[in-house]
């Protein structure tokens, strides 16, 4: 589905980002996989070595604008194009109202919102020249419905949804599609960190009776990155198994 396509996936070292990278490589894409920590993608690189596509590790902090620009220059030089950007990198810091400080708010928005805006602009410049492209922003069910104790995180993901819808209106004339994916409760290391008792409680609130897998999210991203979704833009696709929050 992604033969000859060039993709950049941020936050690719684990969880949803890793699954997206693997599924895209399986489907023939050249995936520039991003992570902050040098060497953290070597295992993924070897795991995907025999797939139809290939994975190229690129190490930079998404909040570092200069490093991001250098990566896009590298992609342009090596591949000559960028067909898809997946803004997956994000952080989650929870705090109840009254316990939120400016540092926490700044850190979450710096990664979850400001970096997404910067990377979208860099991608749009390349995609405008080729008159084609797909941008996929990873939001969250809490950005749609909200959740107690997650005011900052839910606000950041709601901002991702708003900027997705706005960017889609601006970039559609250039044949660039912009969509968001809103995962629910996904079985990742980050989600499991809340403790098994709380995990069991959360599963009771999922209509399908199970946690989602990173591959569930990756498969929706595959659709949005492929030509199958060429008439889809400005949408927020929930991947939540009918979860209630």
Keywords:
single chain, 245 residues, alpha/beta, Rossmann fold, 7-stranded parallel beta sheet, 7 strands, 46% helix
Poorly predicted regions: none
Q: Which homologous superfamily in CATH is the superfamily?
A: NAD(P)-binding Rossmann-like Domain
The share of residues in helices is 40-55%
Largest sheet: 7 strands, parallel
Instruction: State the end-to-end distance.
Output: 34 Å
Number of helices: 9
The whole-angstrom Rg is 17 Å
Please trace the helix and strand order, writing H or E for each element. EHEHEHEHEHHEHHHE
Q: What is the oligomeric state here?
A: single chain
Which geometry do the CA atoms define?
A: globular
Q: Percent of residues in beta strands?
A: 15-25%
The CATH top-level class label: Alpha Beta
SS-derived structural category: alpha/beta
- Number of domain units: 1
Mean pLDDT: 96
Strand elements, count: 7
Q: Name the strands of the widest sheet in spatial order.
A: 3-2-1-4-5-6-7
Indicate the CATH topology: Rossmann fold
Architecture, CATH level 2?
Answer: 3-Layer(aba) Sandwich
């Amino acid at each position: 589905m992604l033969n000859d396509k060039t993709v950049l996936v941020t936050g690719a070292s684990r969880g949803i980002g890793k699954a997206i990278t693997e599924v895209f490589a399986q489907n023939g894409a050249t995936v520039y996989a991003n992570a902050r920590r040098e060497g953290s993608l070597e295992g993924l690189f070897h795991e995907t070595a025999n797939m139809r596509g290939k994975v190229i590790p690129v190490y930079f902090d998404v909040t570092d604008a200069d490093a991001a620009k250098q990566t896009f220059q590298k992609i342009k030089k090596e591949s000559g194009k960028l067909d898809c950007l997946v803004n997956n990198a994000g952080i989650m810091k929870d705090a109840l109202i009254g316990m939120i400080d400016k540092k926490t708010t700044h850190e979450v928005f710096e990664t979850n919102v400001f970096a997404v805006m910067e990377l979208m602009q860099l991608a749009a410049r390349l995609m405008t020249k080729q008159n084609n492209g797909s941008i996929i922003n990873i939001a969250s069910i809490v950005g749609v419905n909200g959740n107690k104790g997650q005011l900052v995180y839910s606000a950041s993901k709601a901002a991702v949804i708003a900027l997705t819808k706005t960017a889609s209106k601006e970039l559609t004339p250039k044949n660039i599609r912009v969509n968001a994916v809103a995962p629910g409760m996904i079985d990742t290391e980050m989600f499991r960190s809340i403790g098994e008792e709380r995990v069991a409680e959360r599963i009771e609130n999922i209509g399908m009776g199970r946690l989602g897998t990173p591959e569930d999210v990756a498969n929706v991203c595959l659709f949005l990155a492929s030509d199958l979704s060429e008439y889809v833009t400005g949408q927020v696709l929930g991947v939540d198994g009918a979860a209630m929050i």
